[in-house]
Design brief:
51% of the residues lie in helices and 20% in strands. Helix 11 packs parallel to helix 13 and helix 11 packs parallel to helix 19.
Length: 621
């Protein structure tokens, strides 16, 4: 992952600044409203106090005013100086002449007409002095609002300090949250372009690098070499030593290839045990062969896997742009043809593409022919891998997996024959056959065991684009008698994102039948989380690359995916659960379902039926 992936994205920073500005504006509005309310309350209180002074003074000053006793009137008036807010008090006789007064501010106006009106001026009370219905004179009381201003200033300072503290705390929390989200999305982006086992670019990343290298070569007039490498006996090691040893072997192979390649070349893993090396720039075809031979030599040295030493050789096919191919697709196809030529020649060698070399094309033609025959003669099989409730560890359903045991070549992996079926259009018929078989088997299992299992079936990109696919699902459900809610269709992220509008329409149509929808291999096909709120899905399947490092590593990312899915009302299935520690962590994290070798390997229908009979469980839909 490059250094830029660790920095907060510009958009996230702008969003954070905008949120803080909005919060500051909101606090300013609230503060202004509270200050205005405080001002009105304090001023009303001051007005009420001056009114009480005027009423008391009017009741006590009438006698001294009636008899012209200025000294007694002054004594009464001076008693009101105890109120610091009262700055002027003037008593007038019946003729309007000043009778007695006290003033704290001698420069202040002495009549109401001289005072500035308004909310922010002094508080003034001017009243007549009446006794027995006879007007004896009048009074003028004035109170300044300095105390109110001081109180409001203190209140404003305290509110400002509290607001600044709240904004600072909010900024720190917001930044931490943005950093976590940025790291999670950067991790997803990294997984979208990087193989988690070897740390090398995956098929998607390698393809983009190849396209860029060819574009640069076209501009400069240079050449680009492609080396396609396939391990000769990886399956033997993987089957005999287990998946963990297989992953360790792949990691070591990737490291050796990267060390043997030139500094400017790119090494990637395209899936399974297939690697590529993009040689750029390239002087000649002979130079590419030398590079390929160095890569093969690096693989021939024994590899230590725990206590076992294994030797894994590889076969390579080379092709040069633009001498042997005009574009990336042709370059890959021709390198693949050279690779199969090397394998056919005894493996552990390098094959150089020649124009007459069409072995790969012929092999694909044979695979297509044999695949059609297998479909017609029941040569294909459906295996079922159980899915379990994480909390109770009880089986709740199965995933249908297509298997092909070739009568001559033995087991052929889906990674090899599914692309052939996709290209020739046979995948539509195969997919319909798998769907019908899975639905019939689920109904049959329910009758025999009393366990209403739900069954998950993968949908290919070609099936997804078929306009009659939804009608086929409806027909199969009607013919087999499987309740729609017990069927779940799985689609991959990359497939959905090719045509988002069509994907949404398709899923709504399927959901209208009552069938459940889930996204398979979540996190490896697309690097954004925004589509979750627009796709009408029921469930996410966390890819095994998220589960594999648990519980020692990867908790934040796996926990974030589980929490996000639950926030959207989705259930979560964890794939590739292979040891008890992983399951224990997933149980603590609130994962809904688990699937993997720890709880159940893929098995034929007969083995699954026997297991259900031997281990009676309460199966939930």
């Amino acid at each position: 992952m490059n250094a830029g992936a660790h920095r907060l994205p510009r958009m996230a920073r702008m969003l954070g600044a905008g949120q803080l500005l909005a919060a500051a504006a909101a606090l300013s509005l609230v503060g202004g409203t509270l200050l205005a309310y405080q001002f009105v309350t304090l001023r009303h209180g001051l007005q009420a106090g001056i009114g009480i002074h005027a009423q008391v003074l009017g009741e006590n000053i009438s006698a001294p005013l009636m008899f012209g006793d200025r000294e007694a009137a002054a004594d009464i008036l001076n008693a009101f100086q105890a109120d610091p807010a009262l700055v002027d008090a003037v008593i007038y006789d019946a003729g309007g002449r000043e009778f007695v007064a006290f003033r704290r501010n001698t420069a202040a106006p002495s009549t109401l007409a001289q005072l500035a009106p308004g909310w922010f001026g002094p508080v003034v009370q001017e009243r007549p002095i009446v006794h027995g219905g006879r007007r004896l004179g009048g009074m003028l009381l004035r109170a300044e609002t300095d105390a109110i201003s001081t109180s409001l200033q203190n209140y404003g300072v305290l509110f400002g300090l509290a607001s600044a503290g709240a904004l600072l705390a909010s900024a720190l929390i917001s930044r931490r949250s943005r950093l976590r989200v940025a790291r999670a999305e950067a991790k997803l982006a990294y997984l979208a372009y990087t193989d988690p086992v070897t740390g090398l670019p995956n098929r998607r990343g390698g393809q983009e690098e190849l396209d860029a290298a060819l574009a640069q070569a076209r501009e400069s007039g240079g050449s680009v070499g492609l080396v396609l490498i396939d391990l000769d006996n990886f399956k033997v090691v993987n089957d005999s030593a287990g998946h963990a040893a297989g992953d360790q072997l792949l990691h070591e192979v990737g490291a050796r290839l990267r060390a043997a390649a030139r500094p400017g070349d790119l090494v990637g893993r395209f899936g399974g045990d297939e690697f590529i090396v993009i040689a750029r720039p390239l002087a000649s075809s002979d130079a590419l062969r030398d590079i390929a031979e160095a890569l093969m030599e690096a693989l021939r040295r024994p590899i230590q896997l725990d206590a076992t030493e294994v030797t894994v050789t590889g076969s390579a096919g080379t092709c040069v742009f633009p001498q042997d191919a005009a574009n990336a697709s042709e370059l890959m196809c021709n390198a693949d043809a050279a690779l199969y030529h090397a394998k056919g020649g005894g493996r552990n060698r390098v094959g150089e593409f020649k124009p007459a070399m069409m072995h790969a094309t012929q092999r694909r033609a044979r695979l297509e022919r044999d695949l059609r025959r297998a479909l017609e003669t029941d040569g294909l099989a459906v295996f079922y891998q159980p899915q379990f409730d994480c909390a109770t560890e009880r089986m709740v359903g199965v995933e249908a997996l297509l298997r092909w045991m070739h009568p001559e070549h033995g087991f052929i992996g889906p990674d090899e024959f599914i692309p052939v079926a996709e290209e020739c259009g046979l995948i539509v018929a195969i997919g319909e056959w798998v769907l019908e078989r899975a639905c019939r088997d689920a109904v049959d299992l329910g009758r025999r065991s009393g366990a209403p299992l739900h069954v998950a079936v993968n949908v290919s990109a070609r099936q997804f684009r078929e306009k009659d696919f939804v009608r086929s699902v409806e027909r199969i459900l009607a013919e087999t008698g499987l309740p729609p809610h017990r069927l779940e269709l799985e689609l991959t992220e990359s497939m959905l994102m090719e045509d988002r509008g069509a994907a949404i329409d398709f899923m709504h149509a399927v959901r209208a039948l009552g069938v459940r929808m889930s996204i398979d291999d979540f996190g490896t096909g697309y690097s954004s989380l925004s589509y979750l709120q627009s796709f009408p899905i029921n469930q996410l399947k966390i890819d095994r690359s998220f589960v594999r490092p648990l519980p020692a590593d990867g908790q934040m990312l796996a926990g974030a995916v589980i929490g996000l899915a639950h926030d959207f009302g989705l259930t979560v299935v964890a794939e590739g659960v292979e040891d008890r520690a992983q399951l224990a962590w997933l149980q603590r994290a609130g994962c809904d379902y688990a699937q993997g070798y720890l709880l159940g390997r893929p098995m034929p229908l007969s083995a699954l039926a026997a297991r259900l009979l031997e281990e009676p469980v309460a199966v939930n839909v």
